[in-house]
Write a sequence for this structure.
């Protein structure tokens, strides 16, 4: 059973997605079904994490006599679709399943009055399948297929409220970006396949000699995945997509974005990890992109009036922290002394920030969804005095805002502090920018808090009530996670994050599985 | 000299198609034309994959009923399988994009991308 987990974790939500449309005429049955399926997947992800941490990388070969049998007899190269689950893949899978579960729970009340809910839940589960496939696979073409599944399901969900023109506008923007990016990924897969005749990432990384064609492939892959993860200068689709998507999908869509970030790390560290010359310049490029991303994102967030749009620009700026943290690690990858001194910690900060950001940004976007649910508007100037009417939402918002601004004891502080400390040692300017960004983030959240929750009560909202229970539960779970991750960062760092960092750094253990020469 | 051009003709066509596709996506105003640009890009990538797998004088990789001389003289099946998968995915992408375009036309009354700009700031 445990050896089939990597396949089952894809199969269960896929099965759920195809069953969901059959529950069309059954009231809230699709919602309950989605909650059950995402809950089961979450349990499987926990088992997967436990298995990977206990016994190292798990390999699953599709179509072999035994799922762990990598090479058919007489072959020298891997030929089948192989799932390779190492610590960072398991880490991302845990984030994805956790956020899909919370999103399904929140959606139960949030979209209850819409039509076409069976399709909504089917797409939610398909999006989960896409993310899980991207983070677990060890095969380049398979990566492309799941990238497309996540892109299609995600953009269909962005355009879910099709009675609003804006939703379709945001949806087609997202779809065009993801289609162009994934076609370019396919093109560079073709370049690599043409030279080395194989699609397996681990096998390719032993073969790569870094000639001109490889350099072109690396450039295209880097640019496409940076485009899909919303880094500057191709960040324009992020605010539109995050604003228009229903708030219950926001957590899953965030993880879908960071699955592209994961693919970017995988390409830089595993696929091209053997190249000793040019990786440090790639690391510098990644760090500078990160600094630009965080600064431009936060300055654009300051002037927004739409509450969800403001938070979406913050999502861009927080992506910059992850790029900076991992970029610092990549820049010193070939310098063991510096890597030991601060590179590994920088990467831990970047990867820890992924899960922290997913948690508190989902929380914030959900509170924005709750505000929209009770007031029917997202314009900050029309809100006011909601703190007394919606106590739970207010608490959730305060926790989320404190976490995103990096205030102790919430989780944003733990990872941001690691990034400040370590990026300072590579270049002090990076750390200065990171701290200024944090201050500006706090400023813009004070603005949201003052205009939406404080101030005199607005007559229009005299008889508004707290949002329904399933939304409150979803928000409080995330708020509790914010506090827990902030109070005990060492537990998460030791159990989840440092194994993930080491999985990225130890290329040789990724390459040697199943007795390949 | 002539021979070199002839052998590399598919790759030259791929480069041309990529250029045309990116031009169409970047500079055309009509949404349908943008969608067509993405289709051209997809055609370029698919042609590239097929051209990679082509071996002169080799047999198609269909193992049942293969003639005797085809043994050890088949092209690799992988690029063709990749291309088929990519075509199927491309159909889904273009269908969804055209559905969005129709919906945008319903709400905005135009397909001009410079006028479809309610989301800004």
């Amino acid at each position: 059973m445990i050896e089939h987990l990597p396949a089952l974790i894809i199969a269960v939500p896929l099965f759920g997605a195809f069953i969901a449309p059959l529950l069309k005429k059954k009231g809230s049955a699709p919602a309950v079904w989605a909650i059950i399926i995402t809950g089961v997947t979450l349990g499987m992800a926990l088992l997967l994490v436990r298995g990977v941490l206990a016994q190292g990388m798990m390999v699953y070969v599709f179509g072999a006599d035994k799922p762990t049998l990598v090479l058919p007899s007489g072959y020298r190269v891997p030929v089948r679709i192989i799932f390779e689950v190492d610590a960072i893949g398991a880490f991302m899978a845990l984030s994805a399943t956790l956020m899909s579960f919370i999103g399904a729970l929140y959606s139960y009340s949030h979209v209850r009055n819409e039509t076409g809910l069976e399709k909504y839940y089917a797409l939610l589960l398909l999006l989960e399948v896409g993310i899980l496939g991207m983070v677990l696979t060890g095969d380049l073409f398979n990566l492309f297929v799941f990238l497309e599944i996540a892109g299609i399901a995600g953009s269909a969900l962005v355009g879910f409220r099709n009675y609003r023109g804006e939703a379709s506008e945001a949806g087609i923007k997202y779809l065009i970006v993801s289609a162009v990016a994934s076609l370019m990924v396919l093109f560079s897969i073709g370049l690599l396949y043409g030279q080395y005749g194989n699609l397996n990432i681990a096998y390719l990384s032993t073969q790569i000699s870094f000639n001109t064609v490889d350099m072109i492939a690396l450039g295209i892959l880097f640019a496409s995945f940076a485009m899909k993860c919303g880094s500057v200068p191709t960040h324009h689709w992020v605010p539109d997509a995050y604003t228009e998507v229903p708030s219950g999908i926001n957590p899953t869509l965030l993880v879908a974005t960071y699955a592209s970030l994961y693919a970017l790390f995988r390409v830089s560290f595993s696929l091209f990890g053997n190249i000793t010359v040019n990786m440090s310049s790639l690391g510098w490029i990644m760090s500078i992109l990160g600094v630009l991303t965080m600064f431009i994102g936060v300055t654009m967030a300051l002037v927004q009036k739409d509450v969800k749009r403001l938070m979406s620009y913050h999502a861009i700026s927080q992506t910059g922290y992850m790029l900076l943290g991992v970029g610092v690690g990549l820049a010193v990858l070939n310098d063991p002394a510096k890597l030991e001194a601060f590179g590994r910690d920088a990467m831990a900060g970047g990867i820890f920030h992924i899960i922290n950001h997913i948690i508190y940004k989902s929380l914030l976007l959900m509170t924005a969804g709750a505000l929209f649910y009770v007031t029917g508007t997202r314009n900050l100037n029309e809100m006011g005095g909601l703190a007394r009417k919606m106590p739970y939402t207010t608490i959730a918002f305060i926790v989320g805002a404190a976490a995103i601004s990096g205030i102790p004891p919430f989780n944003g502080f733990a990872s941001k502090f690691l990034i400040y400390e370590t990026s300072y040692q590579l270049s002090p300017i990076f750390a200065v920018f990171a701290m200024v960004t944090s201050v500006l983030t706090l400023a813009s959240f004070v603005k949201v808090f003052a205009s939406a929750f404080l101030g005199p009560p607005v007559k229009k909202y005299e008889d508004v009530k707290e949002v329904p229970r399933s939304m409150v539960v979803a928000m409080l779970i995330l708020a509790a996670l914010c506090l827990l991750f902030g109070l005990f960062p060492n537990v998460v760092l030791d159990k989840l994050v440092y194994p993930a960092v080491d999985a990225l750094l130890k290329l040789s253990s990724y390459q040697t599985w199943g007795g390949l020469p | 000299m002539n021979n070199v051009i002839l052998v590399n003709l598919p790759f030259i066509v791929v480069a041309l198609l990529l250029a045309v596709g990116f031009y169409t996506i970047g500079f055309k105003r009509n949404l349908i034309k943008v969608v067509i640009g993405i289709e051209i890009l997809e055609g370029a990538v698919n042609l590239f994959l097929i051209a990679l797998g082509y071996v002169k004088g080799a047999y198609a990789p269909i193992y049942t009923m293969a003639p005797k001389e085809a043994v050890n003289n088949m092209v690799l099946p992988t690029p063709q399988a990749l291309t088929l998968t990519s075509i199927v995915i491309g159909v889904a992408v273009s269908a969804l994009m055209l559905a969005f375009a129709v919906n945008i036309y319903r709400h905005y009354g135009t397909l001009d991308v410079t006028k479809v700009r309610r989301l800004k700031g």
Remarks:
- Chain B has a mean pLDDT of 88.
- Residues 1 and 50 of chain B are 24 Å apart (CA to CA).
